[in-house]
Amino acid sequence: MDPILDDEELPSTNLETMKIFKADLILIVGLLILYGLILLLTKGQSEISIHDTYLLFDKLSFFVFTIGPLWFLMFLIRAWRNKFSQVSTNIGLFIGVLLMLRFSYTIMSFWSS
Q1: Cα→Cα distances 100→44, 46, 52, Å
Q2: What is the pLDDT of residue 2?
Q3: Stretches in the chain below the pLDDT threshold 50
Q4: Res 94: pLDDT
């Protein structure tokens, strides 16, 4: 029998891949639900007072400020554990990198003003 078409290995490999994909999908949906809750619970602008600094965030910036680092770290750990071989984890990591870029831009714009 051809080792490439071995029936015993294919289902286990596909099953493991599907489990990882479902876990990534559950994480993405969970974080998007959390984002929806943030949108519903915040009215207009959110405020954070740190010592003598008073910051106002719009809804998008507040989401990026709270969820961006969490999203990035969760998918970085998952991608590292899977050796960056799963497409769904890499997509989640890419979204996390974009959120971290937005987070960095927001912080830098606060510092420059």
Answers
A1: 23, 19, 25
A2: 45
A3: 1-2, 5-12
A4: 92
DSSP 60-93: HHHHHHHHHHHHHHHHHHHHHHTTT--HHHHHHH
Residue 2 CA to residue 36 CA, distance in Å, equals 50
6 in the Ramachandran plot: left (φ > 0), alpha (ψ -120 to 50) or beta?
Answer: beta
Tell me the DSSP string of 9-29.
Answer: HHHHHHHHHHHHHHHHHHHHH
- Nearest CA to 79 out of 24, 15, 19 is that of 24
- Cα–Cα distance for residue pair 72/96, rounded to 1 Å: 4
| Tokens encoding 35 | 């984002």
Q: Give the Cα separation of 37 and 16 in Å (integer).
A: 32
Which amino acid makes up residue 52? D
